[in-house]
Amino acid sequence: MQLVTTRSERNRASRLRRGRSAWAIAGVVAVAVTVGGAFGLPWLVRFWHEDVRETVARFAVFAERLTPYLWWFLALVPLAMAPVLVRTFRRIRHSPPQVPPAASLRFPKEQAAPPAKPTPPVNHAPRRGLFARPVLGIDVGNSQIKIVEVAQGQPPCVLRQSIVPTPRGSVENGLIRDPAALSAAIFEAVSRGGFATRRAATTLTGQNLMLRKLTLPPMPKRELRAAIDWQIEQVLQLNREDTLTDYSVMPTRPGEPSTVILVAMQREPIINFVDFMQSAGFEIIRVDIEPLAVFRAALLATEARVKQGTHLVCDFGGGTTNLSIFREGVLQTARVVSLGGNHLTRAVMMEHQLDFAEAEAAKILHGFAPESPYLGSLLPVRDRLFGEIVTTVNFFLAENKGVVIDSVQLVGGNSLLPALAEQLEQNLRGVLRGEHKDFHVVLTNPLARMAHSVQREELGWCGASLCVAIGLALGEV
User: Fold this and answer.
1) pLDDT reading at 341 higher than 70
2) Which segments within 190-271 are labelled E, that is strand?
């Protein structure tokens, strides 16, 4: 026969059980205190009279002898606080006066948002954590060395920045050819910037980056690492000891095959570059790949809008152009094209018999404008570059049916050449299918969402040039 009770009866029984347990515990404690007091009280009295009084007397004698030196200790306290006060004064002095209003960004219709209000001026340094430390982002390119110091805050703050030309021939395709010349240029960049820290995150533009998408059957994480190592050696034909690799597993449902994004690069150029930067006095805390650094800067510049949809990121550098495609914030493909701003400059040099400096100035001034007298010499290089971009996009779309390109984010110093963005957008619209008609080519400028001291007339150029360096520093901040 089953006994049926109500909820109130069960609650009453539970209270009774808790009450009995409490009384039992109280009884045990009372007995323990009584027994301990009976046996331990004489020992405590003897300990107080024999040991504690003697210890107090000795401490009083020691304090009396130490009193003359107490004033010296109090005098040293302000001297110890002097470095902290100096650093605080420097931060206040170098804090930027205001944040320029953010540049207008164009996005597809399905992602369109109401026009945002201009960013209010920041008349004080951004809020920082108690133990926040600034980080350097160092981008050593074929044509320029960019260093930026970023501090945590809302918004992040660019404390100092420096851009100097890379000595010609010192860096080629990610390899250091002339360490002495490169070291002198980095020393010049540090001297100009006056950076207060040496903690740095860096990348070497132009390194051979290999990115593959692998599909593996469901398996535990321990077996997944072994399967990826096997794929590296057997399928990709890469020597595991000579390669630096990392991977990311895409989220899937239980029982479904795992999709793995594998990133691999040669070990020796990275190790040599880290050793070189450490010998130059930097504390390298992380080496990142260029596509991820650029994407962080794009996330900041677009207020994380590029985290939804599919976006092509084009970094127009001096020696190379880095192309990467992100889908829902995940890197899908990356490619380095051996065409950059220096190839455009050399085309002007050969066609018009100019030296490098004159040809570079002409390229920056006229660019691809229809009335430019140098357009004829630039068109062959431009068409080859546009062809490589179209090939990369078409290859990605062929592997991902039904995916559309939502935007093209342009970064790098050469992305500001006159009429380049308009002509690239027109070229892509002519070759892509009709469902891509809503995409736009956007100039990415993370400085528009940061506190800084860059002059307004240099905001566009600095934002495009420092994009990789800012993204590197943001990875740590």
Assistant:
1) yes
2) 199-204, 209-216, 243-249, 258-266
